[in-house]
DNA sequence: GCCAGCATTTCTGTATACAAACTATTCGGT
DNA sequence: ACCGAATAGTTTGTATACAGAAATGCTGGC
C-alpha cells in the first residue's frame, strides 16, 4: 500500500509542513482517483498511520471526512474500505451531476470574466494536446480542472460545493467502470462547444451541452451485465447492512 | 447548555443503549433546528462530553460529522460553533433546494405506492391541525416529515441524500431568518396541491408546485438590511480565513 | 476429506495524558 | 482614562493505552 506515499510524506515533513488530516484526505482521494487504491481496498487505521507517520487520532479524523465525501465506507467495528459504487448508484450519480452541472453552467453563461475564460481555454487546449500525445493522466487532470473551475466559479456556492462532490464521485465511477476496450473517455468536441456557449452567454445551450456531454460519457461506460455479480456479492455478503 | 439533554442521556443509558457519536449528532441537530442552540453558540468538546457522559474522542467524531453536514463550523484550534449562514448563502440554499427537490418531485410523480401516499396525506392533515391548534413545533415536525419522506422515496438515491441535506439546511435558516412578525411559515394550500400532483402523476406540475412553494417560503423570510452588519463582522473578524 | 468449535491475532472503540494554540484578564505605562 | 504587553486559564491537537469486537487460522472429531 505504501507505494509512492512514503516519498511524499518525507518531502512534506522536510518542507516543514505538518502532516494533518487534510493531507491524508487529499492523498487518499488522489490515489483512489488514480486507481492506485482499487475499490474494496482495506484501509486499516494503524497502517495508514505508519505510512503517514502519524497516530490513529489523525487517521481517524481523515477517514471520517473521506466517508462523508463518499470516497470510503466505514461500518462499525469494521475496517474502512475504498467504496465501490454499484451500477445503479453510478447511473444516479450521473443523473444528479447532469442536473446540478447543467444549472451551474446555465448560471455561468455570459458571467465569466476574461481571465477565467482564458484559463478554461488553456485547459481545453492542454487536454487536447495530452490526448493527442496519449498522456491519459495529464488529460484527466485538465478535464477535471475544467469542471472544478466551473464549480468554483458558480455564482451559487451551495450548488458549487455539491458539484465539486459530484465531479469527484463521477470520476471515481468512470475509473471503475471504464470499458476495457476504450483507452480514454475523451469527447473531442464537447469541452470547446461548452466554452463557446459560456462565452457567448447562452444559458440553455450550455445546459444542453452539459447534458449531452454527460450522457455521452455515461454511454462510454460498461454498465451492463456485471450487475448480477455485484448483486450476488451484496446478498451473499451482508445483505442487511445499511 | 445542558438544558433537557441530561434527562435524555440518563434515559438512553438506562435503556441500555450506548451513547455514540450518532446519538450526539442527532441531538445537536435537533437542538439547532429547534433553536435551542442559536447560531454562534460555542460547543467545546469537554462540555459536550460531560453533558453526554462520554469522552472527547466520541465528541470529536460527532463534531466532524456535524461539520460535514453544515450544522457547525470547525476552524483549526478554535471552538466549534453553531453555523450562522449568511443571507447570501440562505438564498443560494433555497435555489439549490428548488432545483433538487423539483427534480425529485418530478421523478416521484405517479410513482408513489398507496401506502406512502397515505402517510403523506396523514402528515398534511396533521400539519393543518397543528397549525390550527397553534402548536408550531408539531406543525414543523410534520412539515419536515413530508419533505423527508420525499427525499427517502426518491428513485435517485444520490439526489435523495442531497435533498435530505438541503431540507435540514433550509430549516435552519428558516428558524434563523423567520420574520419576527410572522408566527409561522405555513402555506395552507401548497402541500395538499403538491400531493395531488404527485398522486395524479403530473411531473412538471409537481416541479412547479415545489418551485412556487419554496419561493413563497423564501419570501416569508427577513432577508433584508442585515447584510451590511454581517459583512462588517466577517471583514473585521478574520477576513483571510477559508 | 470436511466441518464445527476454539484460540489467536488483528482491528476498532473509547478514555486519558501531555503539548501547543488561542482567549481573556490584569497590570503597567502613557 | 486609554492602550499594550504579559500572564493565567481554556480549549484543541496529538499520541498512547486498554478493552471489546471481528476476522483468521488451527485443532479435534466425524
Which key terms come to mind for this protein?
homodimer, two-stranded antiparallel sheet, 2% strand, 242 residues, Arc Repressor Mutant, subunit A, DNA-binding, globular, 2 domains, mainly alpha, Four Helix Bundle (Hemerythrin (Met), subunit A)
* Helix and strand sequence of chain A: HHHHEEHHHHHHH
The largest contact between protein chains, plus residue counts on each side, is:
A-B, 19 and 20 residues
The end-to-end distance of chain A, rounded to whole angstroms, is: 28 Å
Spatial shape of chain A: globular
Estimated share of beta-strand residues of chain A = under 5%
Got a strand count of chain A? Answer: 2
Look at the structure and name the CATH superfamily of the largest domain in chain A: GntR ligand-binding domain-like
Short description:
The structure is a homodimer of 242-residue chains. By secondary structure, the first copy, chain A, is mostly helical. Chain A is 68% helix and 2% strand.
Topology:
2 copies of one chain form a homodimer.
Chain A: H1 5-14, H2 21-33, H3 45-52, H4 56-68, E1 72-73, E2 81-82, H5 87-108, H6 114-133, H7 136-153, H8 157-177, H9 190-200, H10 203-219, H11 227-238
Chain A binds a DNA duplex (30 and 30 nucleotides) through helix 4.
